[in-house]
Automatic annotation (TrEMBL):
<dbReference type="GO" id="GO:0015423">
    <property type="term" value="F:ABC-type maltose transporter activity"/>
</dbReference>
<keyword id="KW-0813">Transport</keyword>
<feature type="domain" description="ABC transporter">
    <location>
        <begin position="4"/>
        <end position="234"/>
    </location>
</feature>
<dbReference type="GO" id="GO:0055052">
    <property type="term" value="C:ATP-binding cassette (ABC) transporter complex, substrate-binding subunit-containing"/>
</dbReference>
<dbReference type="GO" id="GO:1990060">
    <property type="term" value="C:maltose transport complex"/>
</dbReference>
<dbReference type="GO" id="GO:0016887">
    <property type="term" value="F:ATP hydrolysis activity"/>
</dbReference>
<dbReference type="GO" id="GO:0005524">
    <property type="term" value="F:ATP binding"/>
</dbReference>
<keyword id="KW-0547">Nucleotide-binding</keyword>
<comment type="similarity">
    <text>Belongs to the ABC transporter superfamily.</text>
</comment>
<protein>
    <submittedName>
        <fullName>ABC transporter ATP-binding protein</fullName>
    </submittedName>
</protein>
<keyword id="KW-0067">ATP-binding</keyword>
Length: 238
């Protein structure tokens, strides 16, 4: 289960209001893309859902339970960062196993989960390597592997492909879409890239200055953009 609801969620840093108030419904299993220009609040919104930032006002519900103020580890979500955030001195195996070890799982269970994730992500031959011995795409797969083994209710991706070159980005985009199909788990994916949004999303959330301009399927937004900003951003002819 990975249903997430935002009710009048706002966020200010000191005197500066970054998110004035957002209402949003994310259904279990949906691939939702937050898209919008740099600085519009995409990462902040994702961090509020993850619990890495506290809301200034409003409520976040996860699977029907009030998760506002709940610590990140209790929310059942896994975040994948663009910087990978891998441990350089640990092998790929240990990097992927890390959250399970922290959770106190036994070696046999850890081994089974790490090997299964590695197989899905084509990392089986790389488990003994360190992150420094991997390509950018492989490092990103390790970061995703570390999220998969936790079996989260939802994956939160913050511009996971922005450090990769263009051709690798296309491959990873397809891999993440395939992963979504095979796991059928909710994914929230932040990007400023219209092409990623249009090709990956079940539902696109267009943000501008912390406000939601429109929510809809790629086709709905393309055919019926709510305003010139959405039309311009999505690239529809209106
Ligand atoms: P995006 O991810 O869409 O590029 P962010 O969510 O990172 O945008 O940032 C939205 C706005 O909030 C920006 O103006 C940014 O400077 C501001 N902001 C983000 N985090 C903080 C923080 N910890 N303190 C102060 N301002 C912040
Ligand atoms: Mg950001």
């Amino acid at each position: 289960m990975g249903a997430i609801t935002l009710q009048k969620v706002s966020k200010s840093f000191g005197d500066v209001t970054v998110i004035p108030g957002v209402d949003l419904e994310i259904n279990d299993g949906e691939f939702v893309v937050f898209v919008g220009p740099s600085g519009c609040g995409k990462s902040t919104l994702l961090r509020l859902i993850a619990g890495l930032e506290d809301v200034t006002s409003g409520a976040i519900r996860i699977n029907g339970t009030d998760a506002t103020g709940m610590p990140p580890a209790k929310r059942g979500l896994a975040m994948v960062f663009q910087s990978y955030a891998l441990y350089p001195h640990m092998s790929v195996y240990k990097n992927i196993a890390f959250p399970l070890k922290m959770a106190g799982q036994d070696q046999a269970a850890i081994k089974q989960k790490v090997e299964s994730a590695a197989s899905v992500l084509n990392l089986t031959d790389y488990l003994d390597r360190r992150p420094g011995q991997l390509s950018g795409g492989q490092r990103q797969r390790v970061a995703i592997g570390r999220a998969i083994v936790r079996e989260p209710d939802a994956f939160l991706f913050d511009e996971p492909l922005s450090n990769l070159d263009a051709s690798l980005r296309v491959n990873m985009r397809l891999e993440i879409s395939e992963l979504h199909q095979s796991l059928a788990t909710t994914m929230i994916y932040v990007t400023h890239d219209q092409v990623e949004a249009m090709t990956m999303a079940d539902k696109i959330v267009v943000l501008r200055a912390g406000n939601i301009e429109q929510v809809g399927s790629p086709l709905e937004l393309y055919r019926n953009p709510a305003n010139a900003f959405v039309a311009g951003f999505i690239g529809s002819p209106k």
